[in-house]
Amino acid sequence: MGTSKAFLGINLDLIENPKYNNLDSRAMMLYALYADRSSASLHNARLGNTAFVDNMGVFIRFTNELAAKVLHTTEKMISKFRKQLADCGLIKVVRDGLKGYKIYVAQVEETPANTELILPWKNHYVETVKVTSSWTTFAKLEFCKSLVKSAQTVDTTVKSQTATTNLQNGNTSLTPSSLTTNSFNHNGLVGNAHAREASQSETQTQTQSAKPVIKKQNPYHLLPDSIKKSFNRVFGFITAPVAIELQSLIKLANEDMLNYAITSSEGRKITSPINYLKAAITNAIKRGAKCVQDMINYYDNQVKNKKTQRGNGYVRPRYMSEKQAQQEVDTAMEQLRIDNPQAWLRITQKQKAQSQSKPLIPIYSLGE
Question: What dotted CATH number matches 13-105?
Fold first, then answer.
């Protein structure tokens, strides 16, 4: 049985198209690596994992260190090759964070029709044709049956041999009834046909008795569209574990309550979206909320215009004006003057010294 191995293919348009004449061969190899990784990102995106998709399209992460190790060269040369690819419009590199990069891979432009090709065989396009042989298992069985029928209509006369049989000398007529399948099987064709028929019947029995294989569906596709749109807009892509957690929250409350919890958190700095949503839904259920309106009423009455309560029972707004702050300072200083006159005098003298303007120091110009 033959084995096949994976390989990286170089697009021949990189060689033939005059636009890429100044492209190094190792840069072509680097593009092949990028294109292969980009196809993997696109495949994952089609399965529901949008970790490598943003508003600019599908991107990859491929460090220069890894590329240098694959191509057996240095990171400095990889930077040079990557610049060549970017100048030709084959890739676009965007910085992501302090040290990370996103690489967007573009398609190779086709060679113009009026270009004289370099390769003599000019096999730029390969067409794969699947050929099905007419010599199927059914045809083989029918052929074997026809051989058996033809053998039953002919009388075979065999000269007996004393060394190999106990019959008397002379001609012996063998009737079709005396012929067995084992003694006349046309080089094993009939026996093989029966064996194949038995194998096919056994395979059909096993197929019927085997349980159907149920393919597991991606949990992302089971989420409602409103949840997917809201979560992608507020927090980013949805992985399979996150999709499972969101489904459990929908069962715990309902779709509308979860959607409100997601949309109301937009603009906040939340490091763990799932933990935040779990806490929001759990607390809402503990308060007795059964619908979105209950959550909105609690926010308007208890959170939106909430005031801070001090330990002594004094209630005041969360923020105060400059005038109110000055009144608070004057009240505290007056109380300090009564309770501790020495400390009040020391603070007052210090404030007076700081308020006095410092003497100006004259600046004299140096003589020539």
Answer: 1.10.10.10
Q: Where are the domains of the chain?
A: 13-105, 219-304
Among 113, 117, 92, 86, smallest CA distance to 15 is for 117
pLDDT tens digits, one per residue of 214-265: 566 777 788 888 888 888 888 887 888 888 888 888 888 888 888 888 888 8
Cα distance between residue 360 and residue 311, in whole Å:
49
pLDDT tens, 284-337? Answer: 888 888 888 888 888 877 776 655 454 455 555 556 677 878 888 889 989 988
Q: Name residue 51's amino acid.
A: A
Residue with tokens 């038995």: 198
State the distance between the two ends of the chain, measured CA to CA, in whole angstroms: 100
Quote the DSSP letter at residue 212.
P
Asked whether the beta carbons of 238 and 221 are under 8 A apart, the reply is no
Give which of 300, 269, 298, 268 is closest to 281, Cα–Cα: 298
Give residues with Cβ within 8 angstroms of 284, minimum separation 6. Answer: 253, 257, 261, 294, 295, 298
What are residue 105's DSSP bridge partners? 91
Q: Which amino acid is at 49?
A: N
Backbone angles phi, psi at 204, to 5 degrees: -65, -40
- Encode 102-125 in three state secondary structure: EEEECCCCCCCCCCCCCCCCCCCC
| One-character DSSP codes across 324-362 | HHHHHHHHHHHHHHHH-HHHHHHHHHHHHHHHSPPPPPP
Structure tokens at 317: 């707004």
Contact 144, 190 (CB under 8 A): yes
